[in-house]
Amino acid sequence: MALPKIIDPVQAFNTLFGNFVPANDPAAAAAAARERVLGTSVLDFIKGDIARLRGRLAPPEQQKLDQHLDSLSDIEKQLSGMTASGPTCTVPAMPDASQFPKLRQYNGGEPYFDAITNAHIALIANAFACDLTRFATLFMGDLSYMGNPLGLPADNHGAVAHTYSASPVGANGTPVGAGDPATWALLAKFNRYPYSKVALLMQQLDALGVLDNTLIYVTSDMGNPALHSTRNVPTVLAGGVNGIFRMGRRLKMTPDCPSTSPWCAPGDSTFTATTNSHLLISIAQAFGVQLATFGNQPNPADITGPLSGLT
Predict the structure, then answer these.
(1) pLDDT digits (tens, 9 = 90+) for 242-272
(2) How many angstroms separate the CA atoms of 39 and 157, rounded?
(3) Is residue 35 scored above 70 in pLDDT?
(4) Is 209 within 8 Å of 232 (Cβ atoms)?
(5) Given the DSSP bridges, would you call strands 235-239 and 215-219 parallel, antiparallel or unpaired?
(6) What pLDDT digit, counting tens, does each position of 162-207 carry?
(7) CA 104 vs CA 8, 13, 119, 177: distances in Å
């Protein structure tokens, strides 16, 4: 079931640590146990009432009730007392809301983008260290507003992405000349910012002793922003994954344009695409999910099997 994004770091803190019970605090553990008993008894009553009604409803309405029961189960899990685990697990301080009095972009939240991002990174790192969650998504919006912290044009889309003039290798197989290095600088400046946040997350995970057990998957939605092209998309894997993937190197895949065909046209016999599906299959298998295919493509080979060279 898809979960809505959480913009407010304080809300994220309450979601992750609101029912958190430190292992060395007996009073907090007892209070959590009382709340758990009360909350569970209420949920049991509600589920019993719904179960009595279920038999009177048509199948579509029964499916809706089942979805409600699933939601109640999620609440039940939140009510259960969570105990700290891990040698470096501590309750972090609640994010200081005064650092981001406004949150939403284009509604006054732009000056606080950096503080909001850093607060979420700290929460993710601590939640991993306490084993409160084993999955998190950090989605960073663009910086398309006046006075952004990088000094980029206010219109990142038109003035940064669409002014990009790539080299022959990075121009989606249709290079015109050697590209314009002056147009690469703004995009490089933009890219350096989100990747610096990835580095910050890695540093915090490492300090908490969980980086080597974590996989960070960083990517973009396109390889050439000027063309809205999804070819040659840069992807970074970081962390240890318990040694399953060999880190500290670059895998150059075929779509980077082989030297025998600098134009890299899709119809060229020397061009063989390597789809992202293979990488996603590898990631799933690294975490014990027996997945053989991922996605929908006309050619089954494009969506079948892991990415070679990762292990």
Answers:
(1) 889 989 888 877 655 544 544 455 555 555 6
(2) 48
(3) no
(4) no
(5) antiparallel
(6) 888 887 665 555 555 678 888 889 989 999 999 999 999 999 999 9
(7) 9, 18, 15, 41
**Three-state secondary structure of the chain:** CCCCCCCCHHHHHHHHHCCEECCCCHHHHHHHHHHHHHHHHHHHHHHHHHHHHHCCCCHHHHHHHHHHHHHHHHHHHHHCCEECCCCCCCCCCCCCHHHCCCCCCCCCCHHHHHHHHHHHHHHHHHHHHCCCCCCCCCCCCCCCCCCCCCCCCCCHHHHHHCCCCCCCCCCCCCCCCCCCHHHHHHHHHHHHHHHHHHHHHHHHHHHCCCHHHCEEEEECCCCEHHHCECCCCCEEEEECHHHCCCCCCCCCCHHHCCCCCCCCCCCCCCCCCCCHHHHHHHHHHHCCCCCCECCCCCCHHHHECCCCCCC
* Class of residue 299 by CB neighbours under 10 A (exposed 0-12, middle 13-18, buried 19+): exposed
**CA-to-CA separations, 74 to 11, 48, 65, 70, 79, in angstroms, rounded:** 17, 17, 14, 6, 9
Whether 233 and 276 have beta carbons less than 8 Å apart is answered as yes
Amino acid identity, residue 172?
N
**Which amino acid belongs to residue 166?**
A
pTM tops 0.85: no
Question: Around 264, how many Cα atoms within 13 Å sit in the side-chain half-sphere?
Answer: 20
